[in-house]
Amino acid sequence: MVREVVRKLLTTLRRKGVVEEVGEHTPGSYVVTLAPVRSLLEAPRRARTRAAEEPRVDPAQLDGLAPETRGVLRQLAERALDSLGAPRGEAYVRDEMVRQYALLAGAVSGIRRGATDRESRLRALIAAALEAYDAER
Question: For residue 85, what is the DSSP state?
Answer without folding.
Answer: T
